[in-house]
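Q: Sequence in, structure out?
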Amino acid sequence: MKLDGQAAIIVGSARGIGEAIARMFADEGARILLVDIESMKRELDAVAQSINQQGGNAIAIVADATVDAQVNRMVNEAVRKFGKIDILVNSAGLRGPLVTVPEITEQEWDLVLSVNLKAVFLCCRAVLKVMMKQKSGSVVSISGTAGKEGMALRGSLCAAKWGLLGLTQTIAKEAGPYGIRANIICPGGMDEPDLRVMYAERAKGLGMEFSQLEKSVLELTPLRKYAKHEEVAKAALFLASSDSSHTTGESLNVSGGRLMN
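A: Exactly. Output:
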């Protein structure tokens, strides 16, 4: 197993990509601290219970990653339970408003930047202190197409995800001498109901039919399909494990070819 005996914190693991990563990491032998916000507690506990029933080792903890004190409590709990932290996965996210830049409110801007960038900073800052003492570790953060290109009606999200790229590359350079790697995954559209809801709202804002927008997106995707959660989880496993032992500061596209840089 690729993660046998390793300890991982997965932030945003109650559903979606984070849940898929947690299940895959557990199958590969990792001990998992599952983290999500209070409103997702029921789903988070269910994921932990399911993993444990299948022979894995998972603990669920409620924490808001945008609050420093809660992040520190989360990290301290991981060290107390596992004695170390080998992997941090930042999978929590918020798409934010689908409006033009002049229409984004200050509150909306602050919330999107807080969830998508500040939370990653706080989690990395706390976990890196542990990893630097160990002189080992891997940080994997989830971005997306918004982290590689400007997108109409996605101003706050693009700003946050581009910032995530800069933060990750900085961490890779600073922490590399300690044996720590930091990388990003950039999925394209995910095969999930939330995507279609978002596309319908975005199409309305662009004055298009939903079918037109979806057709144009898939035409820009050479594989002509959305990504599955498990496909992103496999990329996370690669970046978290020793399979990518000489890879750091990279952003791995899992976009069906929509992104190629």
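The domain at 7-191+228-254 is CATH 3.40.50.720 (Rossmann fold).
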